[in-house]
Amino acid sequence: MGKMGSSSIHASGSSSMVSLSGSIIGVLLVLISNQMAVCNGGKTSTFVRKAEKATDMPLDSDVFRVPCGYNAPQQVHITQGDHTGKAVIVSWVTMDEPGSSKVLYWSKNSHHKMKAKGKHHTYKFYNYTSGYIHHCTIRGLEHDTKYYYMVGVGQTARKFWFVTPPEVGPDVPYTFGLIGDLGQSFDSNRTLTHYERNPHKAKTVLYVGDLSYADNYPNHDNVRWDTWGRFVERSTAYQPWIWTAGNHEIDFVPEIGETKPFKPFTNRYHVPYRASDSTAPFWYSIKRASAYIIVLASYSAYGKYTPQYVWLEQELPKVNRTETPWLIVLMHSPWYNSYNYHFMEGETMRVMFEPWFVQYKVDLVFAGHVHAYERSERVSNVAYNIVNGQCTPINDPSAPVYITIGDGGNVEGLANSMTEPQPQYSAYREASFGHAILDIKNRTHAHYSWHRNQDGYAAEADALWFYNRYWHPVDDSTGA
Ligand SMILES: *[C@@H]1O[C@H](CO)[C@@H](O)[C@H](O)[C@H]1NC(C)=O
Ligand SMILES: *[C@@H]1O[C@H](CO)[C@@H](O)[C@H](O)[C@H]1NC(C)=O
Ligand SMILES: *[C@@H]1O[C@H](CO)[C@@H](O)[C@H](O)[C@H]1NC(C)=O
Ligand SMILES: *[C@@H]1O[C@H](CO)[C@@H](O)[C@H](O)[C@H]1NC(C)=O
Ligand SMILES: [Fe+2]
């Protein structure tokens, strides 16, 4: 029997009449279709987004503007710099000359400026040469503290700020944003604006891969990596984005002699992989507040005996749910995807790792890649052993919910063709651009909401409470 998605649309000052009446019609349609559906799984949203081509913002767009001043730092971004949230990696690019790789920083309550020294380098990609890319790790920060920081010391200095997370602990509330496959189209700008204006005010973005889509340009024109860095700076300079590598980060182009995979991505975006004993920047983990976040690599080897496999096998037993109740996994290619795009691409990794996810009671798995939104039931498909024929996903209270959030709005457009009928495991799916918020309240409860770009900033198109699999493993599927 079909289930109703909990499309609780909260009318706020900014929600439009259109979305309200749309939701009423939507509820009516769901009520009608609920009586008819027998074999369908969950809800395929009745919201139909206007079909239009996504277009990249032109190079002279306001969001790509170069900051004023000689050698001014641009593309400023930060990410967590250690395993527990007491360090931050600050990165930026200077164009005219290397300039200083120093970061000056001071906490809100102190005027004593501290100094950290970073490094800079450049890279070439076909006939493109990058600016001077700086990375500097600031360590020994106090938890739950606002810091100001300054880059471009001695030339054109620019000042930003960030807030460190509270100390890791089981009941520490924390709010994450979820964005994937953003790109740099007009729709990408709408998604980022909706994320910024969402009244939930998330503090860190869990980014599920595919950043700039520079590889859609001739010779993977890396100028589009620079424009992307300037576009997202308005968020990435002030809050950490936790990076996952997607297929658009591979940049493997043997025709033009570019045979080192992930070259632009790894030069520009550093992650604290060594802090979790990883041997490559594509898979790693961090703790933040009450969450343990594991980032996996869909485009690095994960078969048995490979470095990623061995790392994950040793990593999962380290997660202490008394310390970090929420176990969250990020990856690019989804395992449970019922769209006609990238169908079953995640299947081989699912076969390798899904039994561990069920054994270790992963709460939530976020992926991108498919340019749409989908949320699964708690299901697993781990019984099959090649002779027993048990190859259908079943409801499983120990299994994660799988969420595809590849709907950032990049130039490739929406994935709007779905497999029919909707499989049982799929709880809600909709082909619209948007972002999501995971609002962790304590060790048992987290409120989750998905926000489509067509609605007002506060409207929740798909929303529910997730209950922690370790501390409160009761049914949290929609309609229950
Ligand atoms: C790189 O080569 C392409 C064509 O091969 C050309 O259009 C472009 O202007 C070149 N860029 C630079 C920076 O030389
Ligand atoms: C992008 O969004 C911002 C904030 O809403 C707006 O100020 C800006 O003009 C937009 N730029 C483009 C090119 O759409
Ligand atoms: C798990 O974390 C709790 C709380 O920090 C701590 O008391 C306990 O010793 C840890 N357990 C293990 C096995 O490390
Ligand atoms: C956890 O948060 C939920 C939602 O805010 C609340 O209802 C519940 O009482 C909280 N649990 C504890 C132990 O505080
Ligand atoms: Fe992708």
Automatic annotation (TrEMBL):
Enzyme Commission number: 3.1.3.2
Recorded family membership: Belongs to the metallophosphoesterase superfamily. Purple acid phosphatase family.
Membrane-traversing stretches: none
Taxonomic lineage: Eukaryota, Viridiplantae, Streptophyta, Embryophyta, Tracheophyta
Every Calcineurin-like phosphoesterase domain range: 175-373
Domain of life of the organism encoding this protein: Eukaryota
Full protein name: Purple acid phosphatase
Cofactor: Fe cation; Zn(2+)
Domain Purple acid phosphatase C-terminal: 399-456
Limits of the Purple acid phosphatase N-terminal domain: 73-164
